[in-house]
Write a structure and sequence with these properties.
alpha+beta; five-stranded antiparallel β-sheet; 5 helices; flat
Length: 191
């Protein structure tokens, strides 16, 4: 009877180790599959994969045109028109600023910090604005605090003295650490 209990514990242990490997892999493949399928179906092309290649090529070509000296004023004119439309202005500029925080010239989320919220509680985040003098708050900085297990977060304005930059910390590792709820490992900061 004791060997049967030992065997069932061993089988349960193997099952959970297998689940720990299979579940994240399956979810990753599932998400990538549906993203690729969505992008591929943007254009109704009968050849699988051709739609995503055309979308990728079209976006790259538009990026090329936006950088050419001759066509750049056209893109700037379209943006100025978008800025004049009340609701579109808010949506467009918010989405553009968020996208440029990850790609583009104005990258954010590259300065990981620890923010003291109270005497015994601190949170990890990223400085998104160093200078808030435009709203007469020279002593504050804007800090984005992502949520764990979610792709959302909050932006807080915190006193400079409560924000400490994590020198040598890899911003990608810090983001993974936060999003995983502190489960992912953080490597030793470089000195």
């Amino acid at each position: 009877m004791e060997s049967m209990s030992f065997t069932s514990k061993r089988i349960a242990n193997y099952f959970f180790k297998g689940l720990l490997f299979v579940a994240p892999l399956a979810l990753t493949v599932y998400i990538i599959y549906y993203i690729v399928q969505f992008l591929d179906n943007l254009l109704p092309v009968p050849v699988p994969g051709l739609g995503i290649l055309i979308v990728f090529g079209l976006i790259t070509f538009i990026g090329y045109l936006a950088n050419i000296f001759i066509t750049r004023p056209i893109f700037e004119l379209v943006e100025r028109w978008l800025f004049r439309i009340p609701l579109v202005n808010i949506l467009y500029t918010s989405i553009k600023d968020l996208m440029s925080a990850f790609v583009g010239d104005k990258k954010k989320f590259n300065t990981p910090v620890i923010v003291k919220l109270s005497e015994h509680v601190s949170r990890l985040g990223f400085i998104t604005q160093e200078d808030l003098s435009m709203i007469d708050e020279e002593d504050l900085v804007a800090v984005y605090l992502p949520h764990s297990y979610n792709f959302s977060g909050n932006c807080f304005l915190a006193p400079r003295e409560n924000v400490r930059i994590l020198k040598g910390a890899n911003s990608t590792e810090v983001m993974k650490f936060i999003v995983s709820g502190g489960v992912s490992e953080l490597s030793q900061p470089k000195k």
